[in-house]
Amino acid sequence: MALIPLQxxxxxxxxxxxxxxVPPFGTKMSVWEPQIPELTRNRRVLRINHRGHGLSPAPEGxxxxxxxxxxxxxxxxxxxxxxxxxxxxxxxxxxxxxxxxNSPRTLDRIxxxxxxxxxxxxxxxxxIASRVxxxxxETVTADVVLPWFTPDxxxxxxxxxxxxxxxxxxxxPVGYASICDAVDAMDQRHLVSGVRVxxxxxxxxxxxxxxxxxxxxxxxxxxxxxFEVVSGAAHLLGVERADRVNDLLxxxxxx
Length: 255
Known about the structure:
Layout: E1 8-11, E2 18-22, H1 36-39, E3 44-48, H2 65-79, E4 84-89, H3 91-102, E5 107-113, H4 125-135, H5 141-145, H6 151-156, H7 158-169, H8 173-184, E6 199-204, H9 212-221, E7 226-230, H10 237-240, H11 242-253
């Protein structure tokens, strides 16, 4: 499949080293807004939108993890960035894992948040894809968005949950369903030992989708990887606990 020209945003000092931010699918590049003020102090930050998210095109599927990772590599090549640091969350972390194992010279160091090398069988992303194709994004919104935040945020700061819900409903259903297929089939366990770059794995203590055990196993398989658990957060930990996540990311990116 041909590479897709992903929507991106580049900000920060033009002379600074580049940090790539790859979001979870189902969210847009705005998910990184809490990290931008800290990271752009001394880094040039590149954010992207996956296929079907924002203005990124969504060709007919099926997609694979490799397809979507190659989209990211194609963008880096187009921009002339031969080596970057990178942070990925959720499915974004899966793409970085693929790149780290298959194009090791591209990544200087990586942080993998809410990550797992293999999609748990009980997630049933294939069923979610079928529902989206049959009835649109709104048919799965509640099921998908609910695990993103703890009840403290959902009820204490409802405007944040409402914003992410609106973003989710606006995603192209073709692109979203096709990414669901890729997630449903994902098994990267054979890639983990091939990751040789400095790595930090971060899990959220209250993530119902990928509890910390997933991150622990991933970190154990990467030589020298650091593992951290962030309390008081669910799947979108960079939104809910930006203070702690920013400390971890700034420290890791700075080496």
